[in-house]
Amino acid sequence: MRLFVNSLAASAGGGLTYIRNVLPLLASESGLQVTVAAGHSLREEFRNLGGVDFVELEIPASRRFFHEQLEIPGIIRGCGADVLLSTGNFALRNSPVPQILLSRNSIYTSADFYRDLISRGEYRAWLDTRIRAFLARKSIHWADVTVAPSESFAGELQLWSGRPIRAIHHGFNYESFCRDPTPLGEEVEEKLRSAEGSLKLLFVSHYNYYRNFETLLRALPILRGLLADRPVKLFLTCKLQAGENPGAYHPEGAANLVQALGISDVVVELGTIPYRQLHQVYRRADVYVTPAYTETFAHPLVEAMSSGLPVIASDLAVHREICGDAALYFPRFSAQELSKRVMEVVSSAELGTRRRECGAARSCAFSWKKHVEELLSLARSLIAGQLN
Prior knowledge:
Blueprint: E1 2-6, H1 13-27, E2 33-38, H2 40-45, E3 52-56, H3 64-79, E4 83-86, E5 99-102, H4 111-119, H5 123-142, E6 145-148, H6 151-161, E7 166-167, H7 174-177, H8 186-193, E8 199-203, H9 213-226, E9 232-236, H10 252-261, E10 267-269, H11 278-282, E11 287-290, H12 299-306, E12 311-314, H13 317-323, E13 327-330, H14 335-347, H15 349-363, H16 368-383
Parallel strand pairs: 1-2, 1-4, 2-3, 4-5, 5-6, 6-7, 8-9, 8-11, 9-10, 11-12, 12-13
């Protein structure tokens, strides 16, 4: 079987995490030939990966959808592919081979996100998201089968599109995640060292609106008041500065909120940490926190659980699906309740230990190997015309 993987949309966050973990497993699969459409940077990252043929394409994000519709079908025919895996939420309208669509962007179905954009005066972004949502919904109808990374999001997509959606959990590999011993940069290391003795919260994300940074920031003064005898630090793997994050999100509002709340000494902007070094940051934190108001899988939750961190998460169905009893939950826009959940973990050594143990066990439920096996089984069923 020859599989064609369209990974042109993998430029940051979960998209990159997915490709970085899945491609090596596909390359090692016996009897499978793989061709990947990728941008230059991703092609360079996998230059030494054998067993995969690359087609390098540089297409601006604003024109990607239409260029893919025009160029990718011919490339698929030229390489003799049997099945197409579209990894970036959008499918080919007329795929020359059976097509599996990976849909993993919940902002298109999130009422909270649309309200957020309006409240920020981001009317152009609102319209752009509506257009993309229209194409994403059409894509579900164009694809032979659509796969979501969680049961929760699969159900959401099914209601939204009126089409059956398959759920195949994304995976995790602890040994691979922790393999690289390359030291963190001196600037990052100094920021981590200076926080010793503090309660160290961690949130792994580029700045964007749907990760709901503002609720987390508003919780910090409350926590500082509750922990008068112990400093609080929040590690962010981004910088709240224009031009420092992927996408068109504006972090200036969050930066102004930091100043208005008087928490400049609490928020520690580490900046982007290379994925291969992230395990070192997790190990330096005490508690992992995510206030996201919409999600599809949330890889950092699994990474945090595997690293022995208790997790405080917004009360989303997908967060409960991924973490189960390993996390404590709070209403997604309540800074007060977020603070209470943190204090529950901090105040009870027994509760913290129980959450850590539960998280370590829960993280083992996710496997990239299993994900790839299920995906390839689905592809073979499509080729054989046996999909039901």
